[in-house]
Design a protein that fits this description.
Blueprint: E1 2-6, H1 13-24, E2 27-30, H2 31-41, H3 44-55, H4 61-72, E3 81-84, H5 90-103, E4 109-114, H6 117-126, E5 127-130, E6 136-138, E7 151-152, H7 159-173, H8 175-182, E8 186-190, H9 195-206
Parallel strand pairs: 1-3, 1-4, 2-3, 4-8
Antiparallel strand pairs: 5-6, 5-7
Helix pairs in contact: 1-9, 2-3, 4-5, 6-7
The structure holds adenosine monophosphate (AMP).
Length: 207
């Protein structure tokens, strides 16, 4: 099963992706995670990406498309994959379609997780992540409920950057909903419900 997960930052893509990966035993490809790892490692890619990420801007298409193409060559994607946070522009969506055609693969579903902007701002500014295992929690979690690790706030989850990320989403990424609707792959999900309810809805629609 090859899935594209769409939705504004904070819609719950990362949380649902982790559950889908466990359920269907497919590879998780999060461009945000790949870029953050490059930033932490201080690689040339990380240095280039950081200036965009800190402002809540998109990293240039050429950079991100190259990353995803490379990642799709890895063997674990043969059993299926979920793209989380990619594509984010029409240029990325078109590049993905042509890369998959070249690889003899297809997208089975584009899942759009919809959540109102006000809910998103609250979620993102109170979001905290576990440094050790990547668990996504909130400011209510003093330590990671999964592994006891230290929780931290992403730099781009600060209020000023969150507003910019939402503007960027509306301008560059929201049009992809129509792009995938046009190719009959779109499944729209109400993401403003408890995690397990959203997950059950997604599974039901994929079945
Ligand atoms: P995310 O973890 O998906 O919210 O991504 C965090 C940041 O990484 C974004 O605000 C962008 O700066 C960058 N990023 C992640 N995925 C992409 C993408 N597909 N295209 C461009 N920039 C991206």
């Amino acid at each position: 099963m090859n899935i594209v997960l769409l939705g504004a930052p904070g819609a719950g893509k990362g949380t649902q992706a982790a559950k889908l990966v466990a359920e269907y035993d497919i590879a998780h490809i999060s461009t945000g995670d790949i870029l953050r790892a490059a930033v932490s490692a201080g690689t040339p890619l990380g240095l280039e990406a950081k200036s965009y990420m800190d402002k809540g801007e998109l990293v240039p298409d050429s950079v991100v498309i190259g990353l995803v193409k490379e990642r799709l060559q890895e063997e674990d994607t043969d059993k299926g994959f979920i793209l989380d946070g990619f594509p984010r522009t029409t240029t990325q969506a078109v590049a993905l379609a042509s890369e998959l055609t070249a690889l003899g693969r297809d997208i089975d579903a584009a899942i759009a997780v919809n959540v109102d902007a006000e809910v998103i701002v609250k979620r993102l500014t109170s979001r905290r992540l576990c440094r050790a295992c990547g668990y996504i929690g909130s400011e209510a979690d003093a330590a990671c409920p999964q592994c006891g690790g230290e929780m931290y706030q992403r730099d781009d989850d600060k209020p000023e950057t969150v507003r910019n990320r939402l503007n960027v989403y509306e301008q560059s990424t929201a049009p992809l909903i129509d792009y995938y609707r046009g190719s009959d792959l779109l499944m729209e999900i109400d993401g403003d419900r408890p995690v397990e309810v959203v997950f059950a809805d997604i599974k039901g629609k994929l079945a």
